[in-house]
Structure formats: structure tokens, C-alpha cells
Amino acid sequence: MGEKSQSRAYFLASFVVLFWGTSATAFKIGLRYIDPVQLLFWSSLAATTILFTVLVYQKKLHLLKFRSKKDLLFSLVESLLNPFLYYLVLFRAYSLLPAQVAQPLNYIWPIVLVVLAALLLKHPLRFTDIVALLISLVGVAFISSQGNMNIFAKSNPLGVLLAAGSSVIWAGFWIVNMYDKHRNEEVKLFISFAAATIFTLLYMAAIKNLPTINIKGIAASVYIGAFEMGITFVLWLKALNSATNTARLGNFSYLVPFVALVFVSLVLNEKIVWTTLVGLFLIIGAIVFQQFFSIKEIKDEPI
Question: N or C: which end of the chain has fewer CB within 10 A?
């Protein structure tokens, strides 16, 4: 591991924020030309190719092995949750909703993670966690309304359910990933995307929707595979490894949905409605509120 440098971590994270900020726009562009399943297949294939190249460059191909049945099981579960199910659900949500609605709704996962940890791992659910959850749900209601005071007037219930549901899948993935810490992260990413590509191909065969060639759709998929998935995940890992304070670095991720709205407005020409901004501030505020009290409680614990 190289020398720690918070400034280097911030430098790398700034590219991560920029790349992830373009993702919502790239999803919508790709979905103009191909359906969610095709988009998942081509983007997963692109990410797999990129991550394999990274492993070759880093001389880590020798790590591509399963030391136990437990490693194999973790890989199967992780790849089923993310990227297969996560992006399958997320892309479907984007096909039904404006980008400015789908993107923030997906961002409630840190709060969902705390709730799932309480339900599945018996972690304590604090009063502040419940308050944060309620605040975020109010934010979800604002975003779903798409600028109408009658929140049911313009909302797409299935799209909202899928966008919010993707955050549950993502949170579930991170719970599983908590127990799979000994393997190299780049290797885990490659295996997950390679397996997800195979899962997607099998799913496409089952629903009789085999891969088709659409140049514009594939171009968008390659961009997604590179800058939403492959390269950006590696950059984020490098930023985390470089950071002297990962908590401060993590705060950078709160910029992503705001950067995303800029691209959504400029590239997709979506008019950003006031309820999107209010809802997004509520969701980000709920996450910050929850994390603030979590840190405070840790500091207040007797030694």
C-alpha cells in the first residue's frame, strides 16, 4: 500500500464524484436505444473487460481463485445482488421515471442499511435512526410528486418502488460484503461483474431477449461499464486506501446527486422541479443527521 495522503484521496474522489454524477444521464441515454436487460448485459461485459485489464496491469491474476466453498458462495451471492439484481432493478426504474426522480430515490441506501442491519444482524435501532428514516421517507414523497402538491398526481408507483427497492438491494449487498473482507477488492469486483454477465445472459435466454447490436446503445453501455462501474470503483478504492480520514472522504459521496442534477438538466434538458431539490436535501440531511448522532454516541461511550 502506498503512502497515505488525504489530498491525493480528495483528488481521486473528485473524479469519482464527477463520473458517478454522469451516471444518471448515461442510463437515460442508453435506455433510449436498448432495454434495461440489454443495457445491463453490455455494461456488465464492458466492466468485466475493464476490470480484467486492471488485474493484468496490477499483476493480480494469480489471486483469481476460490480458497474455499465459502469464498465461492460469497461470490455467487454478491454478484447476484450487485451488479445483477441491483442494476436490473435500477435500470428498469430509470426506464419508468425521470432521471431527477430515480437518482435521488436510489440514494436512501445508507439509511436502509442501518434498518436492515437492525433486522438481520440484530444491531440496535436507535431513536435517531427512526427519525432519519422518517425524514428520508418525507424526502422520497417530495421527489416522487415531481413538482405537484398532490404527490399521487404524477408519480409512477412501480418506478418509485423499483428505485427505492434498488437501495434495499444495495444495502443487502453491503451487509453480505461485510463478511467477505479477506479477498482482494479488485478481484471481487471482477468476479462479481463476470458472474453477473453470465447471469444476465442466462436470464436473457430465459426471456428470449438475446443480445442485439445497437451501436448507440452499446456505446452508452461501454461508458456505463467504465465510468459507473469498472474504472470508478477502482478509483474509489484507491481513494479510500490513500485517505488518512475515510469518514471525511465519505462525505464526498453526498455531492454525487447534486452533480447528477446538473448533468440531467444540461444534457437531458429535464427541468429540475422544486420538489426534487427539497426531497434531495431532506434525504441527504437525514443521512448526515443519522451519522452525526452515530459518531456522537461512539464518542460518548465510556472507555
Answer: C
